[in-house]
């Protein structure tokens, strides 16, 4: 084979790899243009009912910290900057608030963006069902207006011992400032 033919083949191969990797990148939003296959996947919903001064019995979350210009009953105006909410929310397999829960989503969200609709999530799924037992721990930025947000799955216990991955968060429903439901598509890329 001549040097020229070899270099043409190299160029063609390079073009093919570049084209296919950018295709995969767009299709999977996984970064680096690499295609990773999850070792385990779970899709779950959780339901958050925020205390608003009137729904103490029904609420699953409460404002526990607010800036000087706010209070613990109503989120501060516009982007709710500075509010800290603690939650203990039911997790269900489908999008029905009244389905029997398979565990609790427990943790906090902090409205940490002054000039956009965004929060920071730090929470655990504590699962106790016939299929899964153990906890999964999540952290990350949650820009509400983006349809699909990606947060880190930093670890787990029991059935999720040493697991890591990425969760895709989607707002499945909202009602005023009281209720929201998130769909969480958990893809583990490290399983033990
Ligand atoms: C909390 O703030 C809201 C909005 O500013 C106000 O309407 C409400 O009266 C306040 N509640 C308390 C208990 O201070
Ligand atoms: C807030 O965001 C808007 C729109 O992006 C921008 O026009 C404005 O200057 C920003 N304000 C501050 C205080 O950063
Ligand atoms: C898990 O569910 C079982 C059966 O409902 C219950 O007995 C047990 O206390 C639960 N464990 C935890 C940690 O919630
Ligand atoms: C509890 O909150 C949910 C969500 O906002 C609502 O659909 C439901 O009617 C409430 N239940 C009670 C008893 O207030």
From TrEMBL:
One Pfam family in the UniProt entry: Dirigent
Signal peptide: 1-21
Main location as per UniProt: secreted
Keywords: Apoplast, Secreted, Signal
Cellular compartments annotated: Secreted, Extracellular space, Apoplast
Cellular component, GO annotation: apoplast
GO BP annotations, alphabetical order: phenylpropanoid biosynthetic process
Entries under Gene3D superfamilies matching the protein: Allene oxide cyclase-like
Stored InterPro entries: Allene_oxi_cyc_Dirigent, Dirigent
Protein family membership: Belongs to the plant dirigent protein family.
The protein's role, per its UniProt record: Dirigent proteins impart stereoselectivity on the phenoxy radical-coupling reaction, yielding optically active lignans from two molecules of coniferyl alcohol in the biosynthesis of lignans, flavonolignans, and alkaloids and thus plays a central role in plant secondary metabolism.
Subunit structure, interactors included: Homodimer.
Protein name: Dirigent protein
């Amino acid at each position: 084979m001549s040097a020229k033919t070899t270099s043409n083949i190299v160029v063609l191969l390079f073009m093919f790899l570049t084209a296919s990797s950018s295709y995969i990148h767009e299709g999977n939003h996984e970064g680096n243009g690499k295609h990773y296959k999850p070792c385990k996947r779970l899709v779950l919903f959780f339901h958050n009912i925020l205390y608003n001064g009137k729904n103490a019995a029904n609420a699953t979350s409460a404002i526990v910290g607010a800036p000087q210009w706010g209070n613990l009953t109503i989120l501060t105006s516009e982007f709710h900057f500075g509010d800290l909410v603690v939650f203990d929310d039911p997790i269900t397999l489908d999008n029905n608030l009244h389905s029997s829960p398979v565990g609790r989503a427990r943790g906090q969200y902090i409205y940490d963006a002054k000039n956009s609709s965004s929060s920071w999530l730090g929470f655990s799924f504590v699962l106790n069902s016939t299929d899964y037992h153990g906890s999964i721990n999540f952290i990350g930025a949650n820009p509400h207006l983006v349809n699909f947000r990606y947060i880190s799955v930093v670890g787990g216990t029991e059935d999720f011992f040493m697991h890591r991955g990425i969760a895709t968060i989607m707002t499945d429903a909202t009602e005023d400032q009281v209720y929201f439901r998130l769909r969480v598509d958990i893809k583990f890329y490290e399983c033990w």
